[in-house]
Amino acid sequence: MVNLLQAQQGSSLSFFVMIALMFLVIWLFMWRPESKRRKALAQFRENLKKGDKIITAGGIYGTVKEIKETSVLIEVDGNVTLRVDKNMIVADNTAEKK
Questions:
Q1: What is the pLDDT of residues 1-16, one digit of tens each?
Q2: Which fold has domain 49-98?
C-alpha cells in the first residue's frame, strides 16, 4: 500500500513538471518572439517620418506625406493620396530595388 502511494505521488509530481515544461516551451517559442515583434512594429510606427516608403496591411505601397497622431497620409501614385490608420502600416519599403 505504501509503494502505491509513493508511485502516485511520483507520477503526480512528474505530471506537474511536464505541464510546467510545456508552458515554458510555449512561452519561449510563441509568446516571447511575438512580443518582440509587436514592440518592434510599434517602435517602427512611432518613428515614421515624411518621405518613408511603407506598405499597409492591405498591401498598398506608398510614401508618407503627413503624419498625425493616429493616422498617416500616404501618396500612392502621382497625386493620389490616402489617409490610413497608423496601425495598418506593417512594413518599411525603403529597401525596395528599383
A1: 445 445 555 677 888 8
A2: SH3 type barrels. (2.30.30)
Residues 63, 80: contact at Cβ < 8 Å?
A: no
Collapse the DSSP code of 88 into the 3-class scheme (helix H, G, I; strand E, B; otherwise coil) and give the result.
Answer: helix
DSSP helix/strand/coil, 95: coil
**Would you kindly state where each structural domain of the chain is located, as residue ranges?**
1-47, 49-98
Task: Give yes or no for a contact between 53 and 63, defined as CB atoms under 8 angstroms apart.
Answer: yes
Q: Which residue has the cell 506608398?
A: 62
Q: What contacts 41, CB < 8 A, 6 or more positions away?
A: 90
- Cell (9 digits) for 17: 513538471
* Alpha helices, DSSP H, located in the chain: 2-26, 32-46
Beta bridge partners, 77, equal 80
Q: Residue 57 — very low, low, confident or very high, per pLDDT cuts 50/70/90?
A: very high
CB atoms near residue 30 (< 10 Å): 10
Q: What is the pLDDT of residue 48?
A: 92
